[in-house]
Amino acid sequence: MEENKNVWVWVLAAAALLFLFGSFGMGGYGMMGFGMGFGFLFMLLFWGVLIWLVVTLINAAQSGKKEEDPSNILKKRYASGEISKKQYEEMKKELLK
Predict the structure, then answer these.
(1) Which of 7, 37, 46, 81 is most enclosed, with most CB atoms within 10 A?
(2) Read out DSSP for 37-81?
């Protein structure tokens, strides 16, 4: 079974080399053939980085816009000791109106 794995690894490596260095261009190994495989890889890399950048910027913009609920802010202030229980109850009633 290990030998079959090695054979497949070599077959895939040979196919990758043929793709990268093969004659996929218009003029064989001439004008455009040699670099076509690398151009394809760089194109994939470019679009991958561009998509990653857009997604990252969108996520960063959305994370900055999160607004807290007033009742949660009130609970946090009460829990940290900024306000007393009486003040908490009064403010809570005002929020529920």
Answers:
(1) 37
(2) HHHHHHHHHHHHHHHHHHHHHHHHHHHTT----HHHHHHHHHHHT
